[in-house]
Amino acid sequence: MRHIISILLENEAGALSRVSGLFSARAYNIESLTVAPTEDPSLSRMTIVSIGSDDVIEQITKQLNKLIDVVKVVDLSEAAHIERELMLVKVRATGKDREEMKRIADIFRGRIIDVTESTYAIELTGNNAKLDAFLEAIDSALILETVRTGVCGIGRGDRILKI
Amino acid sequence: MLLTGAEIVIKCLQEEKVDYVFGYPGGSVLYLYDELFKQDQVKHILVRHEQAAVHAADAYSRSSQKIGVCMVTSGPGVTNAVTGIATAYMDSIPLVVISGQVPTHYIGQDAFQEADTVGITRPCVKHNFLVKDVKDLALTIKKAFYIAKTGRPGPVLVDIPKDITNQKCDFSYPKSVTMRSYNPVTKGHSGQIKKALQLLLEAKRPMVYAGGGVILSDAADKLASFIRALGYPITNTLMGLGGYPATDKQFVGMLGMHGTVEANMAMQNCDVLLAIGARFDDRVIGNPEHFNDARRRIIHIDIDPSSISKRVKVDVPIVGNVADVLDDLLKQLAATDTRPDAKALAVWWKQIEEWRARKCLKYKQGSDVIMPQYVVEKLYEVTGGDAFVTSDVGQHQMWAAQYYKFDKPRRWINSGGLGTMGFGLPAAMGARFANPKATVACVTGEASIQMCIQELSTCKQYRLPIKIVNLNNRYLGMVRQWQEMFHGNRYSESYVDALPDFVKLAESYGHVGMHIEKPEDVEPALRKAFTTHKNDLVFLNFLTDQTANVFPMIAAGKGLSEMILAEDL
Fold first, then answer.
1. Which residues pair with B97 in a beta bridge?
2. How far is CA A72 from the centre of its chain?
3. How far is the C-alpha of B89 from the C-alpha of B147, rounded, in Å?
4. Mutation for A interface: B107, B118, B130, B181, most A CBs within 10 A
5. How far is the C-alpha of A132 from the C-alpha of B194, rounded, in Å?
6. A53 contact B CB<8A
7. How far apart are CA B531 and CA B539, in angstroms?
8. ipTM entry
9. Strand, coil or helix: what is A121?
10. What's B553's DSSP letter?
11. B478: how many CB neighbours lie within 10 A of its CB?
């Protein structure tokens, strides 16, 4: 099962490596990891996507809670939540492809954020599946470069992760 | 008052009532050692290798409930200490390790004796700190002591760059510390405790399995009161020995890979299992599926939630400090009229006594060759069962655990989790510093002892009258045993050639050496060592049977009831 684990942790040097080190030391899997400071600059919010059985995910959350720098851990995927990922794609956009690329980007509610004579840079947000779908919708030969942030997520409604 | 970083560190240690610091000086800790020199409240013990400093501090803690403290220099000082730190981490021993670091402006420049200490030690400490500002120093050390001792204990390392130890700032030592990210629990959930007691009282075939957590939380007396009130059988893990009196009739011996028949069979066949401060590790439950095949309900008390349902699913988890939870259990037991089912318990005990009657630890001591088990039994008799016994790792460790009956906690000191050869001698030093009048014996083998043999010099310097009981079988005994049982008798690299003359070796360090080859000389030699040479370090080199194996044995990955006994072979 795919789980989205949200972590609130002290924004201190080395905190990230404590988390990533835990995953490698215990052979847990990381699909993606994003981290940045919160509105309170002494705290960071991290989102980890991991795949594992319920037992493994339970161990992961327990082990994360044991880290001294970790303040709170929530498995977002236990209840209703929203996940988003940002992707930037640079594509070749010449001739008839130029118009087609613009059209597909519009369908996916992407935005073209950089233009040259022969390329577009397209910005796209959404969940994993949407970003994957976009990459499948365009001609793979035209993709020059992609970069994705990894998933960040938030609980729906009253579910709030805060101190 | 303005103090230098080095002065602040020593003041902090004094505030924490630290008696001993085990360490070794070097370039980046020179200011710290200068301040140590100027005072005499905190005494420094100079070891001969940093690994030994950590083992000694570790055993100091194991044998006294206090926090062990060590000090090492940057680079190789720290890398040498890593084995010791990992040993303490695996056994949840509270330590504060202070390491020097190159000056802040050199960090990252591949400076002389620079190592990424925080990075190297991260996976084997409970927490670590790099102090980048002298103003953070006092609070960081306060946090280190707090984190080391509370919750599930463990080693905490504080890495201090040399320039920080020479900068000045105002000093005041914080009285207490609170951390929003670290709030260990103590009390267990009262509803869960109630449920646990009810389940225990309903049991027809109860069993209690107690580990190192009982010793770490100083709960041995409470455990004994509770278990005696119930009249249930109890086993201890390797780390838990002494947590329940081994000579008590309810004690069924150690369990696990080299546990007794009665302990392992009772574990497998019980209907309610109470696990206290133990973690169902692979040396106890080698095969969780086999263990689960027998239906039983499990209550698990542990301070670390991640130890619960990690390898074996439990029915009633109780997260809390073992001593606090036992307190609550005792109170609730006193408040209820329900008592265990005496009839069912009598039937269960009859079954356990049948298992016990197989005498799985019996061995034959002939007149020619010394059996290693015999030496441990005689050691037990000669020391009245009251010594602090440290051990290294291997067959001798298992024999010491099986044949020395520990009635008190903190007397049995061994590297259970990491299994560190070389632990025994420095551990004996630490135990002796913590218990300056106590009898301290180190049960070891000729291979393990050579991994920290240099500490004989430290023992001389501080006049430590440790008795080293060397069970010398000229083999890496446990490796040889596995090669015999699982690798077709191919003794690959397990024969130890070119051994030193241990008697001369001990003498060259200024100690007493004895060589014992005959069974009839075992007891007299031990008596002489513990009486005539009471105040000397004595190295007793016992030449023992080369073919002796540790039994019972459960092969790796096998179930608790799949023991191999000596009589089977």
1. B70, B157
2. 19
3. 13
4. B181
5. 52
6. no
7. 14
8. 0.93
9. strand
10. B
11. 21
Beta carbons of B14 and B414 less than 8 angstroms apart: no
User: Which residues is B45 bridged to in the sheet?
Assistant: B22
- Summarised one tens digit per residue, pLDDT across range A78-135 is 999 999 999 999 999 999 999 999 999 999 999 999 999 999 999 999 999 999 999 9
Instruction: Give pLDDT, residue B569.
Output: 72
pTM to 2 decimal places: 0.96
Half-sphere exposure of B118 (CA within 13 A, CB side): 20
Report chain B's terminal Cα–Cα distance, integer Å: 73
Q: Which residues of A touch B309 (CB under 8 A)?
A: 55, 58
Concerning whether B66 is annotated as a catalytic residue, the answer is no
Q: Which residues contact B462 (CB under 8 A, 6 or more apart)?
A: B45, B429, B433
**pLDDT greater than 90 at residue A17:** yes
Q: Kindly indicate the confidence band of residue B497, based on its pLDDT and cuts at 50, 70 and 90.
A: confident
Q: Of A14, A25, A68, which has the smallest distance from its Cβ to B123's Cβ?
A: A25
Q: Are B150 and B17 spatial neighbours (Cβ–Cβ below 8 Å)?
A: no
Residue that has been written with the tokens 């596995």 in this structure = B482
- Here the tokens at position B19 are 């008696």
Contact B73/B26 with Cβ under 8 angstroms?
yes
> Measured between alpha carbons, how far is B266 from B318 in angstroms, rounded to an integer?
22
Task: Report the candidate in A27, A69, A22, A81 with the shortest Cα–Cα distance to residue A44.
Answer: A69
**pLDDT tens across B410-435, in order?**
999 999 999 999 999 999 999 999 99
Which band of pLDDT confidence, cut at 50, 70 and 90, is reported for residue B11? very high
In this structure, how many other beta carbons lie within 10 angstroms of the beta carbon of residue B267? 26
C-alpha dihedral, B263 to B377 to B447 to B285, nearest 10°:
0
- Sheet containing A2-10: give its strands across: A32-37, A43-51, A2-10, A70-75
- Is residue B61 within 8 Å of B94, Cβ to Cβ? yes
pLDDT of residue B112: 98
- E strand segments, B288-367: 297-302, 316-319
**Cβ separation B123–A163 shorter than 8 A:** no
Q: Which amino acid is at B139?
A: L
Q: 3-class SS at B273?
A: strand
Q: What is the pLDDT of residue B548?
A: 97
Two tokens, residue B310: 């990690």
User: Per the structure block, which two tokens stand in for B271?
Assistant: 């209907």
The nearest alpha carbon in chain B to A73 belongs to: B181
% residues pLDDT > 70 (chain B): 100
